[in-house]
Amino acid sequence: IPVQSFDLVLFGATGDLARRKILPSLFHRFQLGQFCDSSRIIGASRSEMDADSFRELVADAVREFGQKDEVNDKDITAFVAQLDYVAIDAKGDQGWEELGKHMRPDKVRAFYLSVAPSLFGDIATRLRSTGIATDDSRIVVEKPFGHDLASAQALNQALRANFEESQIYRIDHYLGKETVQNLMALRFANSLFEPLWNSSHIDHVQITVAESIGVEGRGEYYDRSGAMRDMVQNHLMQLLCLTAMEPPGKFTPDAVRNEKVKVIEALEPVENSDIARGQYRAQNNTGSYRDHAGDPNSQTESFIAMKVQVANWRWAGTPFYLRTGKRLRERVSEIAVFFRDPPHNIFQGSDPAKGNVLVIRLQPDEGITLHTTIKDPGPGGMRLTEAALDMTFADSLAEAERPQDAYERLIMDVIRGNQTLFMRGDEVEAAWAWADPIISGWDDPRHAPQPYDTGGSGPEDSLLLLHRDGRRWRRIG
Ligand code: BG6
């Protein structure tokens, strides 16, 4: 369904994220007819260049980072014809008047800040004081949204001094992933799972976001963040919230986000004894984390696993184990819900508890698998084995359009004015309020990250975290 005609200003338009994700995503939505000829994308950044050079830069970015089998020159030419460019100084006067001239009445106005968070306040203030942003304009900001609670509060203040909360779209691209939304459909559009979705029936939940890549090229940023700030406080937290939240009364942005905030507020503080931190070491020809971070003594974690308790009626007694790391065996993101063993085993000599796991896969092979226990087919008596009820979206939806990339969906939601898949200010602050005390003890050398090998499943302590509870991680890949 086409969206309303818009003027989208992309600050940081020549930056890495814009080239890799935002511009190719816009191209694909354009290709699918989602925005009309009168819509405009205006690149804005410090670099002095004319509109044609910007169009060339965008065409190159689409060729390099777009979906290879869908990119073609004809569509690229049509797409870049809708682009314009303004060289602008976020902190000074240059470019603002010209940007103002590009804005047309009766269009949805969206300002996408793909820039360092230290510029959010300056840009938001300029947009307002020049009148370029109006009362129904939208402002979109990228992560990292703060480094801790105080900096997140300062960013919120700077944005709210100029825009209403209903105009602010804080991106967490995990919320735009197909399976993440399917998790909500699975839970709230089926009556099968919800009666079982509590600590009486669920033993524990494992949330894994494993990556095979390292931090090459991003060492400097990453070393100031680590896995906790880069992944857990935002992406894994969002997955935890959607898994644990109560059914909202309706599917509206605030009803959904109210329920997510309640989950974060119910999280118990996490002790260091419930955390395993790791750092990948050098192997074969690949450098170590410290080589990439550029600090031979770095104590930043490239892996973290932790046991989290949601202290409320539904989840008391059901731990959530979270883990994420770089340079692991494979790129796998999943939520695995382990149901409790049947209360009584009538199949003597055979273990019925091999199945009973619901796996929601975010990537690769997005889909949902229910591992069940069945009779081993054939003679040999009543022996049990595991069988999977598998729904890989790519197979079952073969005829349909390919699933949208997270950014495609999220940018179109901005134009539509739908905030459901964006983080609200109080949500981000609650997540930092939970994360800050955890991080604060890590200067202590006793909590230094443990080295781990590339291509494995993280440090030994991560395995122990579950072993001591009589549980095991699912294998990565
Ligand atoms: C980003 C992190 O937010 O998410 C990266 O900064 C990480 O470190 C990336 O690699 C993972 O996203 P995806 O979509 O590839 O799982």
TrEMBL record:
Positions contributing to NADP(+) binding: G12, A13, T14, G15, D16, L17, A18, R19, R46, K143
Keywords: Carbohydrate metabolism, Glucose metabolism, NADP, Oxidoreductase
Keyword Magnesium part of the UniProt annotation: no
Transmembrane regions listed in the UniProt entry: none
Ligand binding (substrate): H173, K177, E211, D230, K326
Reactions that this protein is recorded to catalyse: D-glucose 6-phosphate + NADP(+) = 6-phospho-D-glucono-1,5-lactone + NADPH + H(+)
EC number: 1.1.1.49
PANTHER family (alphabetical): GLUCOSE-6-PHOSPHATE 1-DEHYDROGENASE, GLUCOSE-6-PHOSPHATE 1-DEHYDROGENASE G6PD
The protein's name: Glucose-6-phosphate 1-dehydrogenase
Lineage per the UniProt record: Bacteria, Pseudomonadati, Pseudomonadota, Alphaproteobacteria, Rhodobacterales
Gene label: zwf
